[in-house]
Amino acid sequence: MHLKNKYYDVVYNNKRSQPDLVEYKMKYSKETHTLNRGVDFTNRFKVDPRVTRSADDKSYLRSGWQKGHLAPAEDFSFEVEAATDTFLYSNVSPQYPSFNMHGSWVKLEKKVRSISESGLVQVLTGPLMFDGRRTNENDNSPEVPTVFFKAIVSDSDNRCEVSIFVLKNDKSSKDYCEDNVYDSFKDNLTLKRVTGNRQLTNAKFCEITSH
């Protein structure tokens, strides 16, 4: 189902109790994105009333998994309402703690913001592969993704460039995945969905340390 928020859109999967895809546009600036989580806006998650099956606080309690933003709050820290809206469970997937807080995922979020300081970008992100695990026995508990992706789309004169990052949801903190995971990405999210009718000039898989 499609969920339209003020500043980001979600394709939500009720069966898996999490998004299939989150999409938004951003031009980050340290001068405009000045609000702080837990100080200027809430850091408490809430159930999205528009969905029929949702994770909640109990889904993550003592599970060993963390609530991973797909649209990060800091990307929307220019406005209280915008940042608060990212704390919906419809914007969350289970992530390994070191991957989410200190590993490759948080490094990638910072890289996306750095890239967008040079101009407006479209960001698409979501879980990619699953192995049947859930966070706990709660009926609404979300499935645990084994892989996440981010695609960054830059436009110029009706042409676009796409940078794709594919990362394993584990404690290794690798900045990339193997080729078979890239092939799975192509099967699950076509570049046509990313680029629409615009002419694709460059689509490349990247490591966080290079762009």
Structural summary, described in words:
It is a single chain. By secondary structure, the protein is of the alpha+beta class. It has one domain: Extracellular Endonuclease, subunit A (Extracellular Endonuclease, Chain A, 3-Layer(aba) Sandwich). The protein has six helices and nine strands; from the N terminus they run βββαβαβααβββααβ. It has helices at 57-60, 80-84, 97-101, 104-116, 179-188, 191-195, and strands at 2-4, 8-13, 18-26, 66-69, 92-95, 121-134, 143-156, 159-168, 199-205. A seven-stranded mixed sheet has the order 1-2-3-6-7-8-9. A two-stranded antiparallel sheet has the order 4-5. The protein is globular, with a radius of gyration of 16 Å. The chain starts with a strand and ends in a 6-residue tail after the last strand. 39% of the residues are buried.
